[in-house]
Amino acid sequence: MAQYARKIKIPKLPIVIALGFILVAVTSGFLPLFWLSLRAGFGGLDAYLPRVISFTLKQAFLSTVLSLLFALPVALAFARRQFPARNMLLKLFSIPLALPAIVAVLGIIGIYGNNGFLHGLISVYGLPGILLAHVFFNMPMAVRLMLTQLEAVPPESFRLGAQLGFTDSQVFRFIEWPQIASSLSGIASLIFLLCAASFAVVLILGGGPQATTLEVAIYQSLRMDFDPARAALLALAQFSICTLLVLIAGRFAQSIAVFPRALGEIRRYHGKSLAARVADALAIFIGCMLILPPILQVILTGITKIQLDHSLLRAIITSLTIGFASASLGLILGWVLAQYTARSRSAVLRSAIRVASLAALIMPPAVLATGWFITLTNFTDVSRLAAVMVIMLNGLMALPFIWPAIYPALVESMQRHDRLCGSLGLKGWDRLRLVDLPVLRKPIGLAFLMGMIVSLGDLSAITLFGSEHLVTLPALIMRQMGHYRMDAAAGTAVVLSVFCFVLISLAQSWSNSRDHA
Amino acid sequence: MITLEGVTFRYETMLMNFNLEVADGELMAVIGPSGAGKSTLLSLIAGFDEPVSGQIKIAGVDMADCAPDQRPVDMIFQDNNSFAHLDVWTNVALGISPKLKLDAKQSATVDNALAVVGLTSFKNRRPTELSGGERQRIAIARTLVRDKPVLLLDEPFTALGPALRREMLDLLLRIQREKKLTILMVTHQPEDARHAASKIGFVESGQILYVMDNKAFFAPTAPAEIHAYLKG
To answer: pTM of this prediction?
Structure first.
């Protein structure tokens, strides 16, 4: 029986403010766009828009298929094998999750670009480069998600398979594949969503109208061509596509932030032949070769080129300040929403709040930013509010990742403590101080770190609102690349990566040791 | 002391309807199959659940709109009776002040209660470092400092072995006699009820079917449902 205190009432004001904030943010982003497009009579519906839409979908589709094709053998191999470097390699596969897109792009250019040692293998600008970068990010994520699925297979299944004399391919057909297949559509739609909304990768590696996505085209219409009406039209298209995808994939987006626990040993009885072992080793090797070179490239070129000058120091301070503020905003929003969702008896309200927490996925940053930009130019000089806009946008962008870090822990804590707190009269500030904060400090810390990581790696909000007065680390890398100072850019990338790795390793150790006190 | 009149409650598809009268200073055991509504009965009296209709009175006062901490009731649960991140002393002290602001006299009360349940040497430990029986002693100590006339027990000793269960029951009985507590105890162990309770209520399908004296409940003349339950 659920051990809730169904009677406990929580104050309405915070939830009204939090939902109001998100609602205003979304509508002030959306309405001006809608209005502008209406007034322009949906003009600009020339060949440009269909071309951009079709490229957006095409690259997302190809990225998804390639990521899954590379990920499947790697995940199977990791699940089957225990070997000394296994845990280290699995850690390697979690690096791209934390790596800001711009850093990876820099590494990919360094390896495959004009001066790279694999120059000429593929053309790094245009579709091939975009696909390579998207596979770099999403293949490892798919591996981790598939591995989580495979680890959930009960050990008895493999014993049964051994007893029945299954061959390797029968184990795959009857045990492994059904387990992965059940979540494959979710993993695929998540990757598709992330690639369709991809900004940094396409901004740098895409080129011209032949290889641009909606997200980047919005930015170009707004900041390069000063054509808000076309930006609005593109934003509407992006909004429609993303809404559809979030409805399909939203549930899975939440699982990104949940790190698989230290993966235990599952005894396997198949795959003992030499051919099977070679094939698995090869799969893991190819997987590593997709991930490792760009990372090494950035580190090796960058580590000696860190120019600890005024602009770098300023960018560090700006990034950390904005990251701190965004994470705090996201955490407060997430906390209030999660508290209310956990207690509310209205199913309608609960799903409304869940959708609100995904606002930044449904309304991609470029869409929100465009609308805010248009709304605010009527009242004030937008550049003066740039920092606030970036913080708000980053806070909303972090929310989908903050939610899964705190919600389950909050529900568990309520089930443990609600009745006792109710009977002792512990409520409000006393309960927060004596019970919730001490008990939930790890999930709260984890959520905060996720917020920081999202904000530190963000390029879209800062590109849309940034200026020479507001330069974060990713923006500084862009600037240095723009001036063809690739070495300095690599140096800055190393600094940015160090910050991200410190945060992600903290997050990982906290989520593994979440004490069930 | 406790009166329930036509108290109805709906849990998922199950409709419950309780009528009950517990006299002052009585220890009544509540027995019945799983899912019969025993825990819900206690939750309603403690104020964790709100009845759909009917009236709950404690010491003659209507409990409608009375928050759990405002009722003259203390409840000990099967588990999660203490905050795992706070030490034993603090857990008991929370029973006096939820703000944790205690004067010297109140602090002495806490020390005293810990002595009664035999936890003095553990007062700086965390509950996770204690055994199951010791953890439930924390809850009993807190009951002592809260000093409420009614005590509700929701299978508090189920996880303990027979000897330890008997010891804890005897500790409770001693406290009950000293403080003249009225106790309502849900249990799955008929022998616990036989040992400690003066009256026994039998709950089935969301209703209190019988309330009988200890002897009559275990006698061959008891109703068929009770026989069926006791035989398992």
So the answer is: 0.76
pLDDT single digits (tens) A335-358: 999 988 888 777 788 878 888 888
Q: Would the CA dihedral through B208, B213, B219, B222 be positive or negative?
A: negative
Interface residues from chain A to B (CB-CB < 8 Å)? 1, 3-7, 416-417, 419-420, 422-427, 430-431, 434-435, 438-439, 517
Q: Do B40 and A427 touch (CB under 8 A)?
A: no
Report yes or no: B80 at the A interface, CB cutoff 8 Å. Answer: yes
HEC secondary structure over A1-46 = CCCCCCCCCCCCHHHHHHHHHHHHHHHHHHHHHHHHHHHCCCCCCC
As for the ipTM of the complex, it is 0.72
Place of tokens 């879209």: A460
Q: If you search the block for the tokens 């919600």, which residue do you land on?
A: A407
| Sheet (strand B182-186) strand order | B61-62, B53-58, B2-11, B14-22, B207-213, B199-204, B27-31, B182-186, B150-154, B73-76
In this structure, the number of other CB atoms found within 10 A of the CB of residue A70 comes to 20
Residue A367 near residue A238, CB atoms below 8 Å: yes
pLDDT for the residue numbered B217? 93
Q: What is the pLDDT of residues A256-287, one digit of tens each?
A: 444 444 344 556 767 778 888 899 999 999 99
CB contact under 8 A, B81 and A420: yes
